[in-house]
Amino acid sequence: MAWFNFFSKEKKETLDKGLSKTKEGVFSKLARAVAGKDRVDDEVLDNLEEVLITSDVGVDTTLRIIERIEERVSRDKYLGTKELNRILREEITALLTETGDDDEEDFAIPANKRPYVIMVVGVNGVGKTTTIGKLAYQYKKKGYSVYLGAADTFRAAAVEQLVAWGDRVGVPVVKQKMGSDPASVAYDTLSSAKANNADVVIIDTAGRLHNKIGLMNELTKIKNVMSKVLPDAPHEVLLVLDGSTGQNAFEQAKQFTAATEVNELAITKLDGTAKGGVVIGISDQFKIPVKYIGLGEGMEDLQVFRRAAFVDTLFGD
Known about the structure:
50% helix, alpha/beta, elongated, 12 helices
């Protein structure tokens, strides 16, 4: 099923608006890169390489894209610069498609997994708790019953913020006193959700950037305790990254993927930055699908990431 079957006009408008700064930045640089040229030659490719790197696509991913374009240039000897936009769209879509497809329904959970458990990780300040609140809203909107677990017991503000989101969305939040064992909170949340036949459980975790051993031990403990309630939990380990930090997001992804079994990514704050190219680089480099993108402060502004729609918006007319 194609991505547009799930993509409403309102979502497309939100995506267009959210990526406007990135699109404007990329195209202004791209226009300068090909100015005065009638075909794609070595100088254009060098300029294109600089455009992609300065758009936070990342060095390794940029080199992969350039190599792919070089192959097409060598095959089609007189490739014109007017075709460069189309070729970029095709090659970047191909890169993103390697990490997944666009056939999944928005905010759907597998029928045979109840409750469906998502453990959310990431450093403080990336929009982790806000993303959890928006996820809870979207799942509840689809008719699912949702439980939130406040397992970031090291910061009072984190618990308070999650409780505020729970009140706003209208879903229960399981919490304990400050300094409690995070794994104990996760255990209580799953136990309560299971007893009440909940559909979705979302567990918040501490946002401190630990050393890798400490981070791995803590997250592993939370996962092990949850599996005592539900053997295959968590079903998702979702890493939240701040897209506006550009290359810093790469470093955070590197540390968290080394510390725990991250299998989904959410990239937030893309609406306020020209660094949206980071979505392409992170998806390619870590071979972990970007599942959600944040495009604003509203509860509706968290979208399931549609690769084709993203590239069409970024490189479309």
